[in-house]
Amino acid sequence: MAKIIAIATDDFEDSELTSPKEALEAAGHVVDIVENEAGKTITGKHGATFETVKGIDNAKLSDYDALLIPGGFSPDKLRVDERYVKLTKEFLEANKPVFTICHGPQLFIQTGISDQLTLTAYQSVQADLKYAGANVKDEEVVIDDKHQLISSRTPKDLPAFNAAIVEALNK
């Protein structure tokens, strides 16, 4: 069983948090949703709600086996907060699994190491990642084995994305 930290705030894309979380939990893993403070209710773009398990100041790399970053407007809000950028960069540099979809990879631009990554994202974010030096592919699921990074483009990719992230944790 792995313990996954999901970083999200209001206006996340509902299915991009709900679906991977359900798939991971069905496989026996634990998913902690983390935002600025514990016990806060965050709301997705379409009304899904989740209560946060802990605040970002109490979330440490050593407490988790993997990181999940859903899309929507949430990643754009989180990337201006150095705490989320720092944690994301720590996961990438520690070669712990990172799972992200749609707009989630926006956080990588702030890490300063986008030029080391191979990934995909939502179409408009792909260009930003290319300008930041990333190797961007327009595929359903892109796996960067060097960084244990699994990425997908849109909610329609969720079945393949979910299968890939569950398989990665079961290795």
UniProtKB/TrEMBL annotation:
<dbReference type="Pfam" id="PF01965">
    <property type="entry name" value="DJ-1_PfpI"/>
</dbReference>
<dbReference type="InterPro" id="IPR002818">
    <property type="entry name" value="DJ-1/PfpI"/>
</dbReference>
<feature type="domain" description="DJ-1/PfpI">
    <location>
        <begin position="3"/>
        <end position="167"/>
    </location>
</feature>
<comment type="similarity">
    <text>Belongs to the peptidase C56 family.</text>
</comment>
<dbReference type="GO" id="GO:0016740">
    <property type="term" value="F:transferase activity"/>
</dbReference>
<dbReference type="InterPro" id="IPR029062">
    <property type="entry name" value="Class_I_gatase-like"/>
</dbReference>
<keyword id="KW-0808">Transferase</keyword>
<keyword id="KW-0315">Glutamine amidotransferase</keyword>
<dbReference type="InterPro" id="IPR006286">
    <property type="entry name" value="C56_PfpI-like"/>
</dbReference>
<protein>
    <submittedName>
        <fullName>Type 1 glutamine amidotransferase</fullName>
    </submittedName>
</protein>
